[in-house]
Amino acid sequence: MSKMLRMAAGVFFFLFAVALSSAGAGSDAAVVEHTFVVTQVRMRHLCNDTLVTVVNGQFPGPALEATEGDTVVVHVVNESPHGITIHWHGVKQRLSCWADGAGMVTQCPIQPNTTFTYRFEVGDQVGTLWWHAHVSSLRATLHGIIIIRPKSGAYPFLKPDMDVPVIISEWWQRDLIKVDKNFSTGGNFDDNPAAAAINGKLGDLYNCSGIIEDNFVLDVEPGKTYLLRLVNAALFSEYYFKVAGHKLTVVGSDANYVRPYTTDVIAVGAGETIDVLMVADAPPCQYYMAALANQPPPPDPQIPVFASRALIQYTNISSNHAARHSCGKEPLMPDMPSQHDTITTVYFHGNLTGLPGHPLLPQIRGPVHEHLYLALGKGSMCTDRNKTSCKRGGNPESFEVAYINNVSFHLPEKTSLLEARYYGRTMNNSDHNWNSGVPVEDLPSKPPRAFNYTDNALIPVAGNVKLEELEPTRKATMTRRFRYNTTVEVVFQSTATMQSDSNPMHLHGHDFFVLAHGHGNYDARRDVKSYNLVDPPMKNTVQVPRLGWAAIRFVADNPGAWFMHCHFEFHIAMGMAAVFEVENGPTLEMSLPPPPLDLPKCTQHE
Ligand SMILES: *[C@@H]1O[C@H](CO)[C@@H](O)[C@H](O)[C@H]1NC(C)=O
Ligand SMILES: *[C@@H]1O[C@H](CO)[C@@H](O)[C@H](O)[C@H]1NC(C)=O
Ligand SMILES: *[C@@H]1O[C@H](CO)[C@@H](O)[C@H](O)[C@H]1NC(C)=O
Ligand SMILES: *[C@@H]1O[C@H](CO)[C@@H](O)[C@H](O)[C@H]1NC(C)=O
Ligand SMILES: *[C@@H]1O[C@H](CO)[C@@H](O)[C@H](O)[C@H]1NC(C)=O
Ligand SMILES: *[C@@H]1O[C@H](CO)[C@@H](O)[C@H](O)[C@H]1NC(C)=O
Ligand SMILES: *[C@@H]1O[C@H](CO)[C@@H](O)[C@H](O)[C@H]1NC(C)=O
Ligand SMILES: *[C@@H]1O[C@H](CO)[C@@H](O)[C@H](O)[C@H]1NC(C)=O
Ligand SMILES: *[C@@H]1O[C@H](CO)[C@@H](O)[C@H](O)[C@H]1NC(C)=O
Ligand SMILES: *[C@@H]1O[C@H](CO)[C@@H](O)[C@H](O)[C@H]1NC(C)=O
Ligand SMILES: *[C@@H]1O[C@H](CO)[C@@H](O)[C@H](O)[C@H]1NC(C)=O
Ligand SMILES: [Cu+2]
């Protein structure tokens, strides 16, 4: 869409936007209280009993339903044998960084047989978010939806008759702690899920010895409007989503409204949420909704095809009514894009625009104080960590890691970064005594060495000499400190070294405006011109196109230590992460309060 068109549409849409509630936490804000008991249970799918870690015995876990401005209180009782933290994905956690639940960044894990209570406000956010474990891959089954409804009860679109969570996830039949270890020590492409799932149901595309897996079933009534709240909770993949026979209208993403956009295919990146309206206006038959994982084509290494489907059936229809429509014997299946289609997602995300009039828009149009150009790639380290020289290119003398600007993120081991910072126990660059605190380094503003980031010839295939030359990398706890109220621009550059994957980059503690994305190497002189400063969508996760880049801006106005990472589990486990630290502002209302008294102690953790 051209800028002119966007602007015209923006003005038109403003009529709706003024209806938006801007009510903050009023006196009638409620407290939403839950107890999450984390246990291991056996669940049977595909002829296998698998031990999984879940909340309250459920997969997916319980939904948190709140209204804008409410306070959420969750008592986590850890009856599992693993250290656990729970991250409230996308909740801005204004002045409550201690409750962000990023393991070893904002807190040490909740040890087995101990409890911790998370308390935070959902503030002025409206829409769909989710919660998940943030210590290793356990989030595969330890997750659930967060629904935040507008305080005014008014939506800037057709009021839905019903909310429908649609959580896309993966079913793993492996020890996920070991899977994480495998990835953090070099990656292992045999570690794949067994199936995809929708709302915990694998669906009838899967069977084992003739036992067909259950579908999630959605009963709809003719003429009613459904708000499908899509969450991609998968560890690995971006998914395409379609519903046979129905148009979908995207109205929100990451708990921010977007200008309504009607399409028949949705792309939802790992960690992302998409809200879509679906009107039950088709002939009253049965329809599949389907989710299909996409992946770059060869020469990238291929994983199996993952897809899951659920059923939509019309109810409350008289039998002669049904007879008048010649419904087929089988439910109608949507035509899915190819699993190797990597352009539909770029178009889908390119068509998302925000509502005009966001209070932070003037500021991100103004001076940018910090520019970061972050190359997301792959390097290698010597297996003997005392060495810097060893055989690379897949030789066992080295192992592969992911990096940002040629440094692979290392989680603090003894104490969380936020506590270390709060109590003044961080060390800057030179002092590497691991016992007395957390050594941190500055995240570099740009890659130390420029190369053709998106050169296809760098895709890792056996015996790639060109790639080996780029490999040597090291590990560090990289952070970047921002003064309160700094305007930050980040350009993420996907590189061919980390396969030609797209990278869903997620920032804690802040939403950001997505200004532009493109293919190839970012070139400021050319690409700044394409920035949408009129009505950019606001997100917490940006899909950085494969062999391409994405530009975001945000205002660093929430003091704390905020994890910034790729939401592909194997990329984060391999080190594609950093921390953005935001300093306190000039007043108490702009400063991080002290930690809660029951914040878990940092004993040894796995
Ligand atoms: C947790 O408590 C249970 C029941 O008392 C006990 O069986 C288990 O060993 C404890 N786990 C740990 C890690 O202490
Ligand atoms: C699951 O069960 C099938 C059939 O019994 C078996 O072939 C397969 O190895 C099992 N997979 C896992 C991961 O346990
Ligand atoms: C981890 O990797 C090893 C070596 O490639 C493999 O044998 C093992 O099955 C993997 N573990 C899990 C839990 O996937
Ligand atoms: C069961 O799965 C196999 C392949 O996994 C497929 O060929 C077969 O059609 C399926 N059967 C049913 C009844 O869905
Ligand atoms: C549809 O059927 C359900 C279950 O019988 C009933 O609860 C509901 O009120 C019906 N809705 C309408 C519009 O008839
Ligand atoms: C929006 O989607 C259409 C249709 O898929 C596509 O042609 C167009 O390029 C997209 N716009 C942007 C800005 O990506
Ligand atoms: C690496 O160096 C440290 C300290 O210099 C030493 O304690 C350790 O044994 C060395 N590791 C190996 C594998 O040589
Ligand atoms: C490290 O020290 C420099 C100079 O004192 C400072 O500018 C920078 O913000 C510090 N970095 C971190 C991560 O603390
Ligand atoms: C990355 O850093 C290492 C040193 O840690 C250096 O040897 C290598 O050349 C750098 N590579 C790139 C691509 O910047
Ligand atoms: C980078 O690599 C791509 C793909 O191989 C190629 O088309 C492009 O010309 C290269 N760019 C530069 C600046 O060399
Ligand atoms: C933040 O910066 C903006 C733009 O420079 C300014 O208008 C605003 O007053 C600042 N807010 C604080 C709390 O410093
Ligand atoms: Cu990634």
UniProtKB/TrEMBL annotation:
PANTHER family xrefs: LACCASE, MULTI-COPPER OXIDASE
Catalytic reactions of this protein: 4 hydroquinone + O2 = 4 benzosemiquinone + 2 H2O
UniProt-recorded name of the protein: laccase
Enzyme class per UniProt: oxidoreductase
SUPFAM superfamilies: Cupredoxins (SSF49503)
Keyword annotations from UniProtKB, A to Z: Apoplast, Copper, Lignin degradation, Metal-binding, Oxidoreductase, Repeat, Secreted, Signal
Cofactor(s) demanded: Cu cation
Signal peptide: 1-23
Enzyme Commission designation: 1.10.3.2
Entry superkingdom: Eukaryota
Assigned protein family: Belongs to the multicopper oxidase family.
Limits of the Plastocyanin-like domain: 39-152, 163-291, 444-584
A molecular-function term among this protein's GO annotations: hydroquinone:oxygen oxidoreductase activity
Compartment list: Secreted, Extracellular space, Apoplast
One annotated Gene Ontology cellular component of this protein: apoplast
Keyword Oxidoreductase: yes
Any one Pfam family match given in the protein's UniProt record, by short name: Cu-oxidase_3
Coiled coil regions in record: none
Keyword Oxidoreductase: yes
Function in brief: Lignin degradation and detoxification of lignin-derived products.
GO process terms (BP): lignin catabolic process
Major location (coarse): secreted
